[in-house]
Amino acid sequence: MTECVECGAEVSLHDDLEAGEIIDCTTCGAELEVVDTEPPVLERAPELEEDWGE
Amino acid sequence: MAAGTEADLSADDAGETVTATVIGGSGFTGGELLRLLAGHPNVEISEVTSRSKAGKSVGSVHPPLRGADLRFTEPDDLESVDVLFAATPHGVSMGQIDEFFEVADTVVDLSADFRLESEAQYDEWYDGHDAPAYLEQAEYALPEINRENLEGAELIAGGGCNATATILGLYPLFEHDVLDGDEQVVVDVKVGSSEGGAGGGEASSHPERSGVVRPYAPTGHRHEAEIEQFLGTSVAFTCHAVDMVRGASATSHVFPSDPVSKGDLWNAYRGCYEDEPFVRMAAGGSGVYRYPEPKAVAGTNYAEVGFELDPSNERVVVFSAIDNMMKGSAGQAVHAANVALGFEETAGLECTGLHPVGAP
């Protein structure tokens, strides 16, 4: 388990986690990039922005 | 009279079963109540009344209940039951509340008749009150803000759909002191046509209602009274009728006096809702539905709440979405009854929704 960098909720991680993997937080839905595995470090994954107003 | 659908004609083996009457069962919320109660493991429907549909089967009015061995009866000679649900128009229950308590131990009213705390509020916002002595004992049906008082409650007052959406969205900000009640709060709610009930009217006819984004009650909406009562602050509140059948989507703009971070907001929302069985949080995460969406909760008792921070305007914009007939009415009533009667809170309310789905 580690903490979501977006909402602070606990995020469950699977055993064979790999750096670069993208997971999502089940509480807030944020996509998180695994930047390190020992110990696990998560960062908010970049995402394409949506803009339908142009 | 036998009751329930073919799937639920017998009592639940695992727990206590109570008998229930639905007054005014031919309307939209009455139909939703029946749909939920027919699948409830602890409820046996004893009687469903409707003056206009007496003698007809409930399935002839509510298609999801086709096949159920249950007919509408006149509301004049009520059977004794454990719990009575009243899905009648505003003003009816307050005139019959003594009669309801003569035949039932617990009364759940879905109208506005017992939502407010004082006769003076009914004088200000409605057309007065015929049974003000009951206001003190009535408990607001929204468990997320009133769970403790609902346990064992005998008179439960269902919340208004627009008020429910608004309160659930803003409640964490007051509960966690992001707002203290002195700030301006502006609320815009988009609502579906079922809020107008099954009766309809000129403005609700399909040619007129279809495709609209039509402001109604742009100021002075009656639900402001509930919002003010439970949040402790007045709100600037406007509704739009939009082209949905089900759904209420509230967008609230608030301007906290002190700086606030997304971490503060998540602490507030997680603190209030992380353990709630019927609140889902959606605040910009990922995927197609990043914020609360009526489609995502259609037919369910779930509310979705979320927010976004606008530092350049020192604004927080809060979103909440419910199905007005479920979390905003019948689902809320069943949830509250579950709490009051000591049942599993989620009993009869397990549906999590459909995806994909068309216009709700």
UniProtKB/TrEMBL annotation, chain A:
Source domain of life is Archaea
Q: What is this protein called?
A: Lysine biosynthesis protein LysW
Family annotation (InterPro entries)? LysW
Pfam assignment, any one = Zn_ribbon_LysW
Q: Which PANTHER family match?
A: LYSINE BIOSYNTHESIS PROTEIN-RELATED, LYSINE BIOSYNTHESIS PROTEIN-RELATED-RELATED
Automatic annotation (TrEMBL), chain B:
Q: Which residues bind NADP(+)?
A: 26-29, 324
Hey, which pathway is this one from? Amino-acid biosynthesis; L-arginine biosynthesis; Amino-acid biosynthesis; L-lysine biosynthesis via AAA pathway; L-lysine from L-alpha-aminoadipate (Thermus route): step 3/5
Judged by the first EC level, this protein's enzyme class is oxidoreductase
Q: Which GO terms describe its biological process?
A: L-arginine biosynthetic process via ornithine; lysine biosynthetic process via aminoadipic acid
Name the source's superkingdom.
Archaea
Q: List the InterPro entries hit by this protein, alphabetically.
A: AGPR (IPR050085), AGPR_dimerisation_dom (IPR058924), AGPR_type-1 (IPR000706), LysY (IPR037535), NAD(P)-bd_dom_sf (IPR036291), Semialdehyde_DH_NAD-bd (IPR000534)
Q: What is this protein called?
A: Putative [LysW]-L-2-aminoadipate/[LysW]-L-glutamate phosphate reductase
The record's GO molecular-function terms, alphabetically, read:
N-acetyl-gamma-aminoadipyl-phosphate reductase activity; N-acetyl-gamma-glutamyl-phosphate reductase activity; NAD binding; NADP+ binding
Entry EC no(s): 1.2.1.103, 1.2.1.106
Q: Which residues form the Semialdehyde dehydrogenase NAD-binding domain?
A: 19-153
Catalytic activity, per the record? [amino-group carrier protein]-C-terminal-gamma-(L-glutamyl-5-semialdehyde)-L-glutamate + phosphate + NADP(+) = [amino-group carrier protein]-C-terminal-gamma-(5-phospho-L-glutamyl)-L-glutamate + NADPH + H(+); [amino-group carrier protein]-C-terminal-N-(1-carboxy-5-oxopentan-1-yl)-L-glutamine + phosphate + NADP(+) = [amino-group carrier protein]-C-terminal-N-(1-carboxy-5-phosphooxy-5-oxopentan-1-yl)-L-glutamine + NADPH + H(+)
Q: Where is this region: Disordered?
A: 49-68, 192-212
Q: Can you supply one Gene Ontology CC term for this chain's record? A: cytoplasm
- Entry-linked Gene3D superfamilies: Dihydrodipicolinate Reductase, domain 2 (3.30.360.10), NAD(P)-binding Rossmann-like Domain (3.40.50.720)
Q: Which UniProt keywords are present, listed alphabetically?
A: Amino-acid biosynthesis, Arginine biosynthesis, Cytoplasm, Lysine biosynthesis, NADP, Oxidoreductase
> What residues form the catalytic site here?
161
Q: What does this protein do?
A: Involved in both the arginine and lysine biosynthetic pathways.
* Record's subcellular location: Cytoplasm
Family of the protein in this entry: Belongs to the NAGSA dehydrogenase family. Type 1 subfamily. LysY sub-subfamily.
Q: Which SMART domains match?
A: Semialdhyde_dh
